[in-house]
Amino acid sequence: MGFHTQLHPRKFGDAIFSGKEVDIIQKYISKISKIFDIYNKISKLDVSVSQLYPITVFENGMFLVYDLDNLQRNYFLAAEQVSEIHVPEGVRACFPLDFYGGKISAVVSPDAFNDIYGYIAIFHEFVHCYQFENYEMELKDGLEIAHRAQEKKDFMWELTHSFPYNDKKFIDETEKLARYFEIGFIDGIKEYYLKMKRYLKKCDYEYMIWQQWKEGFARYIENKIRSVLKVPKNTNKIVQPFKRVTFYEIGSKYIDVIFDTKPEVKGNLKKLFRIMFECSI
Fold first, then answer.
1. Residue 82 shares a structural domain with residue 109
2. C-alpha distances in angstroms, 65 versus 6, 12, 135?
3. Closest C-alpha to 143, from 226, 182, 201
4. How far is residue 30's CA from residue 267's CA, in Å, rounded to a whole number?
5. pTM (2 decimals)?
6. What is the pLDDT of residue 133?
7. Given pLDDT bands bounded at 50, 70 and 90, which one contains residue 58?
8. How many domains does the chain have?
9. Domain end: 67, 92, 127, which one?
């Protein structure tokens, strides 16, 4: 099915857009329209990229929310809001918009539309949108680390948790895991996770699996998209110093192994998480 975009003139509150503002709106409409070209090529890859989500552009302290019309054929400027939170330069994120009815959205800075990699990043965030709407909150509810964070009103725990990356046993075993992935030693991969489940504190193990499921899956799908679009994969070696993004690569590789051994799990992110957590590959 073909798609196109067009400008839907809108009035927000009592403010009518000036000619310059309309030009900015039209500029992003044109750039966002390229999303459909990529979508038509990759939408059958996985259920997590089978639908589109709002795209919010953060520019000059403002959120500009572009949403889909009822026919899912056009993006239009649906809302604008002055930011009350710090948004880093070059943002590529996914979060619910309180000022837009709590609707989940990919949030990017204008440079996301500069090249193919920025558009791929938007689809990476769409995967997170799918996770958010399917299973994420349910799975978090079963995690002790998430409950503790909620009690402390720590809303950034997914980024700031102090995982023991420098623990010698964790380092030694993870270096072995890297080799296991290289040679396809499934028994070794399974044993690694069983060891880590026994060795790490519960919250640390939960954190490790959570990152590998959430970000690892998004990277796994991103690389499937990159393969279709014939651009280099987003991958890196599993080497020291280990840090949060190490889990993204490990998770992607772990998920690849699981889908190879249990192809029936594809499309069921809840079951995938349980397999990862229980090391039942």
1. yes
2. 15, 12, 25
3. 201
4. 32
5. 0.91
6. 97
7. very high
8. 2
9. 127
